Amino acid sequence: MSRREKLTLAGFATLALVLRALALFRYRFDADEQHHLHVAWGWTDGMVQYRDYFDNHAPLFHLLMAPILGGFTAIFGERADILLWMRLPMLVPFAVVLWATWVIGKKLYDERIAAGAMILLALFPPFFLKSLEVRTDNLWTALWMLALVVLLNERWSPPRRMFLLGLILGCAFAVSLKTSLLVITIMVSALIVRFFKKERGAGRLQYAIAGFVIVPAILILYFVSAGAWDQLVYCTLTFNGNVALTRKHLWVGRAIFPFAFAGLLWLAWRFRATENTWRYFFAVAMGVFTVTLIGFWILISPRDFLPLMPIGAIFVAAMAARARNPLRTFAAIAAVLIASIWYYGDRFENNTDWHTTMMDQALRLSHPGEMVMDLKGELIYRHRPFYYAFESITRAQIAHGLIRDTMPEDVVRTRTYVAQADGPMWPPRGRAFLSENFVNLGRLRAAGQWIAEDGSFTIAVPGEYVILNENGEATGVLDLTPYRGARALESGRHRFINAGKKQVVALWAPAFRRGHSPFHLRDLDF
User: Rounded to two decimals, what is the model's pTM?
Assistant: First the structure.
């Protein structure tokens, strides 16, 4: 590379790192981040994933994050900004993916294209933004790229290479069941290369299988011994599979697949004379993965394409290198990507404070060991009384009668007094129950009810309650006896005769003692 090329690449690489550091602490939190961190925290709290609380992902990512989160919490305690700090470990898979992109790009082309591909990948908005987040897809993508590096290392003996390939893919499978698509991609692409280019592969499939089963087998044995095998199968297979019963359009992908795959085969045949076999293999692999994902996968999102992005960046960098003015072309592409990051990254405004504020309120309003009713683990350090996480696929299964909304009964049974604020993600029955029997305190709600003009109110969750007005505790008569402070109330109707004639509310007493009142919301305290 010329000095000018080196300076240009170094400049964009520095800018990519600056933007990442800026976005790391300012880019808004995704609901999946909160869920994954909550699942990891469950392990640190002595519980077993699937058996004691819900998750529909494979377990390895959470098992690896648990000691990191547990160690951090042991040193610094329960922190409202924990999600910010747990983004830092995501730099490791990010670095692994960039390094693997360099290795593969150098193998397919040369150092210039490998370096350009690393920078373009680091600036590609879907990869840039998703790789910031605490999510299984980052570790999954890193393991996939490591598997490709092993696959390309022809200096190792075929048995050793195939065993390591299988071992890494087995780890990836323990992170995400989408690895099954990656395995299919490798096998189908290898067959296409073999038949169209008349080249034989390394073989030794038995070594790959032996490596693949090690990590999943260890995890299976553990969950069986912990009495969680049935729940693991339900959460990761049955629950996810039931999504197909709630979506009527899936037949479209299956109907298109034969034609899309036929088109892929035609293109593979047409370009079979490609000189570099590995370039040909990866181009075919991108096509196989894409048509298979679209044809058969139930839930499709941009993060599902993360394994393709590094290879795509290599091919884009190679095309830029063949342009009339390669450096100018590369710079133009990088500039467009940076502008896209600025747009899709919300112009780097700080959108993390809303969750930090809610967490700060949660840590003051609830104590360790107390349950809270959140949507899918947003409050990280607290367990839900309702088993399932309220994401879109759960709500769809509730609407189709596949899952019962027992949230009202579960809240009462477990004596849960704190809930997340109202919103459209709650199922209708549970939402109506919370709206009627919990009062707003800002980002969260606590058990209680506004008292009607005739003095009547209802308690749903038995417990200790206080009667408040805007000045503090009210004066009057509660259930025919003078009100002199917090009182234990059973479920059912009650009556308060208000001496001051002011608007009053019955509120879970510990919430008031911990500094909260519906008359003085604390949305922006933090």
Answer: 0.94
